Amino acid sequence: MRSNRKEPKIEAILEAILFAMGDSVKLDKLSAVLEMEKEEIREILYKMMKRYKREDRGIVMVELEDAFQLCTKTEMYDYLMKITKTPKEYTLTDTMLETLSIVAYKQPVTRLEIEKIRGVSSDHAVNKLVEYHLICEVGRLDAPGRPLLFGTTEDFLRCFGVKSIEQLPVLTNERIEELKLQAEEEVTRNLKG
Predict the structure, then answer these.
(1) Which residues pair with 62 in a beta bridge?
(2) In the list 32, 33, 101, 108, which could disulfide-bond 149, CB 3.0-4.6 Å?
(3) How far apart are CA 121 and CA 99, in angstroms?
(4) Whether residue 147 has a cis bond before it, omega within 30° of 0
């Protein structure tokens, strides 16, 4: 059954799927998603593979048994290694540490609850803490708008040297400074390794 969609559109869809998935995608799945015959999709993928090989691009398409994947060309590895070995320096600002403390001690907690406690917007701090893998979305509150609930992660426990939330210390100002330094060092170490 010949698709009525234009081939360039199908190529764009295939490219988007393979790029977003990162891993190989079985031809069966591609066929089901596009509602096309497997051989028709394979033919389009082979054309795309030839173009990737011919053109001056940093990626190539590979076939692995009955699956396809976008990969980095081997001649680009040196550049990738340089960029990945550049360590990022992460610091926990007072705002981020305050937000993290609220999440740790009140979890699961919504962004609105965090902001009520802090008295100011916490969007940036919450987003950064999620980026640093110290907090994550743990569900939604059963309330109007179904706001996201946040909690701490295993990385948080690792960074602060505790096995569970129950082991969190009672916080004093001196202890907050110690924990801040430890967490910054651990986050930086984890992201380098």
Answers:
(1) 69
(2) 108
(3) 10
(4) no
State the helix-helix crossing angle for 7-21 and 27-34, rounded to 10 degrees: 130
Give one DSSP letter per residue of 16-72, joined into a string: HHHHHH-S-EEHHHHHHHHTS-HHHHHHHHHHHHHHHHHSS-SEEEEEETTEEEEEE
| Spatial distance between the Cα atoms of 12 and 23, rounded to a whole number of angstroms | 17
pTM: 0.47
Task: Take residue 48 and report the two structure tokens written for it.
Answer: 């795309």
**Tens-digit pLDDT profile for residues 117-156:** 888 899 999 999 999 999 999 999 998 999 999 999 998 8
**Three-class SS state of 151:** strand
Say which residues have a Cβ less than 8 Å from residue 49's Cβ, sequence separation at least 6: 60, 61, 62, 63
Please state whether beta strands 109-110 and 135-140 pair in parallel, antiparallel, or not at all (unpaired): unpaired
Here the tokens at position 54 are 């011919």
Asked if residue 4 has pLDDT above 70, the reply is no
